[in-house]
Amino acid sequence: MLAVFTDFDGTLVEIAETPDAIDVPSGLTERIDRALHDFDHAFAVLTGREIADIDRYLSPLQLPVAGAHGAQRRRADGTLEEVDQAIIEGADAIAQSLQALAMTNPDLLIEAKDGAVAMHFRQAPEMEEAVHLAMQEALLDHPQFTLVPGKMVLEARPVGFDKGAALRAFMQEEPFAGRTPIFIGDDRTDEDAFRAAQELGGVGIKLGSGETAARMRIANVASVYALLEGLGGLAHRHQDAAPIVTDTAH
User: Which residues belong to the signal peptide in this entry (predicted)?
Assistant: First the structure.
């Protein structure tokens, strides 16, 4: 039996110029709802976004989600792990310290979250070095945070929180426990989850090119949909399989 985990941006939806500009394809919630049933609800999203963001885009579904790279987590039973107030305050302070750079460079975007903060430079790639320097300086007063690079984004997240740790936490709970984990992602921030899935006997699957710890690779978002459908079909065949009894009486 499988436990399936996916990233969101770049995996379930295409990456956009800004986080708010993504296009959620028609039928995505229905695809995910089918996956929930195919995998007996052992399906979760591990994302850099906040849980509230995922709920907004995938309404009316309320999935198990690890948000802000694991700083937030909603279990399959709906209970939430509380974010430590010191972490929230630290992320707010880091975001405030980045405001001066963002104000003088309006193509930079600060994405503040409960427990993490990201600065996107997709619309100003020439600012990458300046963003790195500003965030390194911001973290000098907040050693409980670490920097994590992504696709045209740099994120400050709490030390000890990552998608791999979130995957491991889910795998200790129902309905994930005892299953074989599969994690599908596209970014450098997904590498911890690739490794965690594989260390637990499962598989990491990376979209696109680039160096990775994942043992498998697929092409694009459309391939993710096809993969989920295929894995769901395998799960159904496994569930429906029954021994064939031949009547040999004469």
Answer: none
Select from 158, 187, 207 the last residue of a domain. Answer: 158
Q: How far apart are CA 120 and CA 48, in angstroms?
A: 12
Q: Do 50 and 165 belong to one domain?
A: yes
Can you give the CATH number for the domain in which 129 is found? 3.30.70.1020
Give dist(CA 152, CA 141) in Å, integer.
24
Exposure class string for 63-102: b at 16+ Cβ within 10 A, else e: bbbbbbbbbbbbbbeeeeeebeeebbebbeebbebbeebb
Catalytic residue among 7, 53, 162, 187: 7
Which domain range does residue 138 map to? Answer: 85-158
Q: In this predicted model, what pLDDT tens digit does every residue of 112-158 receive, in sequence order?
A: 988 899 999 999 999 999 999 999 999 999 999 999 898 899 999 99
Q: Which of 158, 179, 213 represents a domain boundary (last residue)?
A: 158
Closest CA to 169 of 92, 40, 58, 80: 80
**Residue with tokens 């009547």, as numbered in its chain:** 247
DSSP per-residue codes, 170-185: HTTSTTTTTSEEEEEE
Q: For residue 43, report the phi and psi dihedrals to the nearest 5 degrees.
A: -140, 130
Q: Tell me: do 62 and 183 sit in the same domain.
A: yes
Rounded to two decimals, the pTM is 0.86
